[in-house]
Amino acid sequence: MSHSSLPSSLLLSLLALVTAPGGDGPDLSPIFGRDNAAFARALARQGFGELADQFCRKFDAWKDATPEEKASVRSVALDLAIDIARQQPDPIQRKDAIAVVLKQKEEFIAQYPASPEAEESELSLPDAYRSLGEALTAALEKTTDPAQSATLRDEGRTAFNHAEEVLRARKKALEKKLSDPTFTEKESEAIRDQRASVWFNIARIEYFQSQLFAKEDPEFQRRIKSTLRTLQDLVLEYEDKLVTFEAYVFTGLCDKALGAADQAFADFDQGIALREQFEVGKDGKFQIPLEIDDVVSWAVLQKVNALNDAGRTADVIATIKDYYAKAPQPDKSLSGLQLLAIQADSEFKAGDPKSAGETAQRLQDLDPNGPWGARGREVLAQMLGGTDAGGKKRSLGSAQLLKIADALVAKNDTDQA
């Protein structure tokens, strides 16, 4: 029986065992076999983050666990810790919490250097550093103290320089392996794939470093151009990898930062073209796996953001509608609901309250208890005044008013409903 198919009553019983008092925890092997890390990840994916964290802690204290299983579960615990750190509302506290977990991740990699979990953790480090960079950028925007700004930038430079050193050392080691004639063709291809991922992550780190500087700072321009060169070199060597299409999107972000808007749009379109590697079904949708469509949706999001910055509201709406028409499960992709929220805002801005209300209600239906459902309710609430974003008077039909009222009732806002 897979973890995803466990009955809820059995799941609750197992979790009760896991959270029971006792230094070593229960003997989990008869229940879960050797799939404890997979179980913890499944818990987290299904929204039981706190229970997954408790499971990892209890398993780590279990004296009969094998070193391999401990390493697997420990890697899950560190990923959960990063997710928890990202949720800190204060940017200073958030970057401090992320920095602590980053150190723990690197210690984990050093402790289990040859394990698949350490390799996976190493590949995921740039995402953690990205979160650190975003927290540092948010902190820089919030502070008005020049001394604190300088301290934050120094801290960011130190962290990113360290990450880049680690990645460049990893890339050099992989290149040395590629020159070894004893590896089979299959083994060499796997090493090339690893090298592509590490190379791409070096470019990402360079890009994150640039975000520590104000747009008018010459250092910002220098680092963006350095990132662009790294991405161009990567794309020249790897033409058919997933990271190639991700690199196109980062290339677009760099071109956008350098003021080359048209080239940025072309870059984003190259990233979106990843979906064209797959067949189109009878329903007109690309038959693309969800994990691959995550990249496409992210590319669409970056293009939409650039279109928004250029004031091209109609193109924003058309681009999102095109994605939703051609993706197999657009609302389940990485950026799908965020795109829908942007569509609702853009339709409202364009003076189309009917379409904006329908899109906002769709958000509410798809994510009733989440942040995007809340965003949909905000758009619906804005429409109660009967005006669009430009202040022009609009009228709403009774059916639309009932939809808005239903959404407000679901949010327990009975007075407004």
Q: How many beta strands in the DSSP annotation?
A: 0
How far from one another are the termini? 45 Å
Helix and strand sequence: HHHHHHHHHHHHHHHHHH
**What would you report as the Rg, rounded to the nearest angstrom?**
24 Å
Give start-end ranges of low-pLDDT stretches.
Answer: 1-7
Molecular shape: globular
Give an account of the 3D structure:
With 417 residues, the protein is mainly α. Helices cover 72% and strands 0% of the residues. The chain is globular, with a radius of gyration of 24 Å.
SSE blueprint and pairings:
Elements: H1 8-18, H2 29-32, H3 36-45, H4 49-60, H5 67-86, H6 91-111, H7 116-142, H8 146-178, H9 185-210, H10 218-237, H11 242-257, H12 261-272, H13 290-309, H14 313-326, H15 336-349, H16 353-366, H17 371-382, H18 398-410
Q: How would you summarize this macromolecular structure in one to three sentences?
A:
72% of the residues lie in helices and 0% in strands. The chain has 417 residues and is mainly α. Helix 4 (49-60) runs antiparallel to helix 5 and helix 13 (290-309) runs antiparallel to helix 14.
